[in-house]
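Data availability (excerpt). The following record was deposited with the supplementary files.
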Amino acid sequence: MDSFSIGLSGLTASQRAMDIIGNNIANAATEGYHRQRIELRAAPVHIAGSSISGGGVEVENSLRMYDTLLEEELLRQKSTVEQTSRELSTLNAIEAAISDLDSGGLSSKIDEFFGALQDLSVHSTEKIYQQQAVTAANAMAGQFRTFGNYFDNLDVELTSEAELTVQQINTIIAEIAKLNGSIEDVEINGMQAGNLRDSRDKYISDLAQLIRIQTIGRDGGSTDISFNGMALVNGRSYDSLTVKLQADGKIGITITGDDNYQTDIEGGKLGGIFALKNELVPAIEDKINNLAKSIITEINSQHVQGIGATGSFEDLTGWQMLDQDLADFDPPVENGRIYIRVTDESTGLITRQYIDVDTSQTLSDVAASFDGLDNISASVIQGKLHIETESGYKFDFVPGVLAQPDTSTLTGTAQPQFSGLYTGTLNQTYTCTVSGTGQTGVTDGLMVEVRNESGDLVQTLKLGPGYVPGYKILIEEGVYVSFTGTLNDGEDFTYLALADSDTSGLLASAGINAFFRGNSAATITINEVIYADPSKIATSLSNQTGNENVARMAKLASQSWNSLNNTSSSDYYKSIVATLGQRIGISQTHEQSVTGLIQNLQNQQDNISGVNVNEEAAHLIVYQRMFQAVGKYMQTVNNSLDELMKIM
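Predicted structure:
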């Protein structure tokens, strides 16, 4: 009977081997399948008295060809490349949207706007150039709004994509937990669950492409999975994930039922979405918004100081402020001073007054300060600052030179007359001190010393013989003065030269005589008053036909702004595009590098776990012949027994 036992063991082993080989061949093209291999060993010998005979063959094990370290490294690299790939997809789309591939790009719109201002500075009173400036400004603002809407929509899309991706993740981890249970049920009875393990590992591979996971194998065949310190799968049980927008606009993720949301995750498609939503896209959007806000602020800060073809104002109303506290204004307000010119239309007399602004104040406090000035009334109406003059007066914020300073300290007959346009960058108070007593143009040694706020001597004006009374003498920075009459030794007077009539920035922030409205790419628009009547563009710092203010606005194009990291608007935008391009280039290189590494790892995986049909066919022939030979052996044994029975 031992002979039959030996034969039966051989038939069983060869049949089992052919089944495994057949399964390998059938799954040669199945993604995630790991080749299985049978291991045979000699069965224990049979001892009968002094006789020892072989026990045939036993199937020791059915092995799944699996390299744990290699598989874990593959999961890590797949997670890395999926994050990079997801980031690149959106970054490439942003680059295509904001880069200037044609004449319709933002960079060209900015250049066209400042170019139109330059043209207007040459033709400040011509309506065609006024309209051209408004058209160019509207086109630039429209391009900014297009970008603003693009980023708003992208933000919504990324949030939605994160939610859908988490739904996929939750479905996968539920399947993994279910397969863990099936594997445990099979292997607890001593059987092998190779195909079930492959199915589970395929889900694990899919999961790793969505998030970066850590896996731990357990006795019994199940695999536990964690993510960013959160346990997702524990044997047969699992916990799902939830995403939610946080108060700061970032998206967070946590185990369902837990309030400890995490906003910083890495790896997989979801890691890419989180990086885009919470970091990369906001960084680009912030720069675009900063550019729009800076253009609004710089243009408005200059525009509020000028007047247009219609001259000074009887009243002005700003835009509605959502918050009345100056400290919360955007663009921000600083402690400073606002100078206002008031013109008596009946006499032509121009006087200058001022109010001090403190960031601890409210808009109503500012209105009250204006209201306390001569011939000015002001109030806050529905959150808007409103300023108007009494009948017969007009006002503006022109920093231009006042012809007649306060000379109440002079006892002579001379009346200094100032003129010109101050071109300095800082407000300056000059102190003029008389040296000598006598008639201008006559008295020897008669002069006036002019000193700045620091006490430095700026100019010595020689008014004795050789001076023609009434002749204009340059002090500095475009300011001229002339004298007629008598002066007395030791007397002095001061003169204020303004570079900026609003050092607080409140007028621009509150929308008083502003060119633009808004504070971001999505909200920038042209002041509707100017849009309806381009002649109201504040081109002048002197009279209705002047061009000094629009010329200064045009020059802003080539100036470096503190808000733009000390670069010009054009260079700042170019740096946004260039920085994005560099980031894309680095990411593409990284993606290519990791993709190459993954290919190398997959080649190693194929060598270990892949199915070579030719090799399997060769093994099949071996076991087929084994089966045939064992069958022949058993037939021979059976024939021998038959012959033996006949003899007996």
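Summary of structural features: The mean pLDDT is 92.
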